[in-house]
């Protein structure tokens, strides 16, 4: 039976319509999954950008740039394919107004707290909005050239009080199980002003030969607050604790202090050089120092402002060295001073591949606003160096004098005497810290936090703890997302 003439070509029409439908389903499946994936990524980018902006604002830094940088790190920038908007919530209104900010009743009984009022204030919130444009693939067949995702995040950036590390104990050993994590020996009298001592170790010995904290020798340990140990406290020798009821055993462990972001120093391809100015001083320009820099003999040496990258180390023996507004990066070798004088202001030292910071002999170190980062290497202060070193008084590293991340298990050994002055936190939770004080009765204004802490020496050893002089980071848990 022959088909009728008017039925010819119907299959072609059906196939054409089916192809359009198939492309429509392909567009839904492929473009839809792309849009969904981008929406999730854009939301994550907005969340992290808002948190970065909030932290920057609390630190009185450029919060807009902080948000833009973090969004760019996640693939969203101000360009043809995306846009990033950053604004304080009190500047927005209408459809752009921030949502999810809590409200309070100022007439409630009891009245709202200061923090509740702060968290109800739109001026304390930052909104980051990301607009992402995706070109369509199969969607073009059904008339859709592009897809747009608009996501936003709001973070609290209001008043947040920085908190002292380890609840403000001047001496703290953070090892969870080391025996004698805090240990004092010799004929040393330790006096901790305005604070106390904490041992995070759960080590317990029924015979009390060792403990979470152990004392020895003939000295006295005096605290203004208390001595707290997770394990047991074992006095030894003829040591005395004042006041006699200062010790509390079996307390709860404290979480490790937060890690500190290490700055990313880079010298590029420029090499540093040495020259002599009209006054006969040696001037060392910023850049790469590919050979070990040995500064020997008398005379004046000045490091120019900028970043200096030491590929084989720096040794100072004799001259008077000035280093202001500098960053020192050591990728090999060490930073050693064995005689002479180092004067510095606004200096950051980062040991990343090098063997550490080693000061000794009859050296003189006078530095303000200085921080030593040691990703690798150790710290030693031998001999009788005369030093006055003070941590930064502002910025991200305010109050931070020495920092070694938990991954660095090298030791810190510091000698101090009557002419030594040190202010700022020594934070090295993976390291054994030994402080040798011989009549160090004035000038030690540091919080000392290590994996273990040992106090040695003779005579009186005084720690003057002032939380305002220490590294008090912002608690990240107080910076929260509301949307």
The biggest beta sheet reads: 27 strands, mixed
| First and last CA, distance | 70 Å
Could you tell me the mean pLDDT? 88
By helix and strand content, what is the structural category? mainly beta
Can you give the helix content as a percent range?
A: 10-25%
Indicate the low-confidence ranges by residue numbers.
none
Strand content: 35-45%
Q: What is the rounded Rg? A: 31 Å
- How many E strands? 34
Shape: globular
Question: DSSP helix count?
Answer: 3
Counted up, domains total: 2
Keywords:
mainly beta; 27-stranded mixed beta sheet; 34 strands; 2 domains; four-stranded parallel beta sheet; 483 residues
Task: Explain the overall architecture.
The chain is mainly beta and 483 residues long. The strands form 3 sheets. The chain has a 27-stranded mixed sheet that branches. It has a 4-stranded parallel sheet with strand order 12-9-6-34, with no helix packed on it. It has helices at residues 10-58, 63-73, 114-119; strands at 82-88, 125-135, 146-156, 171-173, 182-184, 188-193, 197-199, 213-215, 220-223, 227-229, 233-234, 240-242, 247-249, 274-276, 282-284, 287-289, 293-296, 300-303, 306-310, 314-317, 320-330, 334-337, 341-351, 356-359, 364-374, 378-381, 386-390, 400-403, 412-416, 421-423, 425-437, 444-445, 448-456, 459-464. The chain has 2 domains: 11-156, no CATH class; 165-478, no CATH class. It is globular, with a radius of gyration of 31 Å. It starts with 9 loop residues before the first helix and ends in a 19-residue tail after the last strand. 14% of the residues lie in helices and 37% in strands. The chain is built from 3 helices and 34 strands. Helix 1 (10-58) packs antiparallel against helix 2 (63-73).
